[in-house]
Amino acid sequence: MKRNRWVAVGIVGLITLMSACGSDSSKTGSSKASGATVVNGYTIKPDANLYEADLENADLENANLRYADMRGADLSNADLSYADLRDANLINADLENADLSNANLTGANLIGAADLSGADLRYADLENANLLGANLIGANLEGADLSGADLFGITWDTYTIWPEGFTPPRSYRQS
Q1: pTM, full prediction
Q2: Superfamily of domain 35-175
Q3: pLDDT tens string 43-56
Q4: Hey, where are the domains in the chain?
Q5: What DSSP line would sit under the chain, residue for residue?
Q6: What DSSP assignment string belongs to 143-167?
Q7: Are 62 and 79 in contact (CB under 8 A)?
């Protein structure tokens, strides 16, 4: 009987050791098992450090980048549709022609002339986002939620599409 007890303790100890080392027999070793992926050599996950990352043309659809530091990142032409960018730091990020449709940018920081020119922001949640000085020339914001968003100093033109019933700040319009 003692022998069986030691075998059981030995297996429990091995499982405990494997768990402590991050090994799990149910995981395949893929970075997706932890919710992270690698794109262009950068780890895509919540709270990621993507400072000045080159993610041009990257497929980041449905990515969870909540609280990510993406200051100065090149995300031009990237697919960020349905991405979770809540409270992300996108100061001076290049999002020119990026697809941010249905993305959650609640509380995101896009100040410092973040370039959103030509970006697809249809149905994006920009509630309480800071867009101070952002470039929205030619951006499509149809159906976007701009409740509480700071739009002071933005630039936009006649090609910028706003949510129905929304009145954009007139003093920063570019022709």
Answers
A1: 0.78
A2: E3 ubiquitin-protein ligase SopA (2.160.20.80)
A3: 999 999 999 999 99
A4: 35-175
A5: -HHHHHHHHHHHHHHHHHHHTT--TT--S-GGGGT-EEETTEEESTT-B-TT-B-TT-B-TT-B-TT-B-TT-B-TT-B-TT-B-TT-B-TT-B-TT-B-TT-B-TT-B-TTT-B-TT-B-TT-B-TT-B-TT-B-TT-B-TT-B-TT-B-TT-BB-TT-BPPTT----GGGB--
A6: T-B-TT-B-TT-BB-TT-BPPTT--
A7: no
